[in-house]
Write a structure and sequence with these properties.
4 strands; about 65% helix; mainly alpha
Length: about 270
C-alpha cells in the first residue's frame, strides 16, 4: 500500500503501526506536508514530525514539487504515479533525517538551514491566509451564481439535480482552468476530458469544490476564519494527491470524508 500522509498524522502512533504492519506499506510525502513540518519552531517541529518516519526511512516516498507535477501532467497527461515521485529526495530521506538529528544535537550549520526553510514555509502560509480571504469572497460569488434549488440542496445534504450537478462540473472545470493558467509557465491543461481527469489540477479542483460545497452548506466561507480557510485549502492538496495512490492517512475526519467523496466521483461518476 502507498498512502499519502497528512502532516497532522506524522506523529500519530497509527503511522508507526501502518509502516510496521507490512514492509511494503509506503508513506507518501507531498511538498505541502514537508512545508507544514517547518511551521512554527522549525527545528522542533521537523524533529518531531520525522521521528516515526526516520525509523522507516526506506518506506518513505517524497513527491516532486506540485508546480513541477502540474507542468509534467500538462505536457504528459498520461504520466504514471511513479513519475510523481522525486527519486533524489526519496533516496536521500534517511540522510535528511540524520541531519535533522545532528541539528537537534547542536550542529549550527544545519540549524541555520532548517531555520531558513522555516522562514520560507512561514511566508508561504502567510500568503495562504491572505489568499483565503480572497477565496471566501470568490465562493460567495459562486453561491450567488447557483440557482436557489442548488444552494438548498447543498445546505440540506440532498442529492443534486442534473442541472445543479452540471453547474458544479462547470465550476470544477473553471477552477482547473484558472490553476493551469496561473502556473508560472501559463499552462492550458489537457484538452481531452479523460486526460484532464487524470491530472492533479482537476483532482484538486474537485476536492476544493467539494470543500466549498461544505462551506456553503453551513452558511458560506465568510463564516470561517482565515487561518481555518488556509488550513482547509492545504488539506485539499492531500486529498488530491491521495486519489493517485491507495488512500489517505489523516486525523481530520472532514478531510477523510472529502477524499471518500472524490474517490467515489472519480470511480463511479467521471468514467
Amino acid at each position: 500500500m502507498r498512502k499519502v500522509v497528512d502532516a497532522n498524522y506524522l506523529r500519530h502512533p497509527d503511522l508507526d503501526k501502518y509502516l510496521l504492519s507490512d514492509r511494503q506499506n509506503i508513506a507518501v510525502l507531498t511538498d505541502f506536508a514537508c512545508m507544514e513540518s517547518y511551521k512554527g519552531d522549525a527545528l522542533e517541529v521537523i524533529a518531531k514530525n520525522t521521528e516515526i518516519l526516520s525509523r522507516h526511512s526506506n518506506q518513505v516516498e517524497v513527491l516532486k514539487a506540485t508546480q513541477h507535477i502540474i507542468a509534467l501532467q500538462d505536457t504528459h497527461p498520461s504520466a504514471t504515479v511513479d513519475q510523481l515521485v522525486d527519486p533524489k529526495q526519496t533516496t536521500g530521506f534517511a540522510w535528511f533525517c540524520k541531519h535533522v538529528k545532528r541539528a537537534v544535537r547542536g550542529d549550527g550549520r544545519i540549524r541555520t538551514q532548517i531555520m531558513e526553510h522555516g522562514r520560507a514555509a512561514s511566508a508561504h502560509f502567510d500568503k495562504a491566509r491572505k489568499d483565503a480571504v480572497t477565496l471566501a469572497d470568490a465562493i460567495s460569488e459562486v453561491t450567488r451564481s447557483f440557482g436557489p434549488a442548488h444552494v438548498r440542496a447543498l445546505r440540506t445534504g440532498m442529492p443534486l439535480s442534473p442541472e445543479a450537478a452540471q453547474e458544479m462540473m462547470k465550476l470544477i472545470l473553471g477552477v482547473a482552468a484558472e490553476i493551469f493558467a496561473s502556473h508560472p509557465l501559463g499552462l492550458t491543461g489537457p484538452q481531452e476530458a479523460k486526460r484532464l481527469l487524470g491530472t492533479y489540477v482537476f483532482r484538486y479542483s474537485l476536492a476544493a469544490c467539494s470543500l466549498a460545497a461544505r462551506w456553503i452548506s453551513v452558511g458560506g466561507a465568510q463564516m470561517v476564519k482565515p487561518d481555518r480557510l488556509a488550513n482547509d485549502i492545504t488539506d485539499m492538496t492531500y486529498v488530491a494527491y491521495a486519489t493517485f495512490f491507495d488512500g489517505l492517512l489523516s486525523k481530520d475526519q472532514k478531510v477523510v470524508e472529502i477524499y471518500d467523496e472524490c474517490r467515489f466521483l472519480l470511480d463511479e461518476v467521471f468514467v
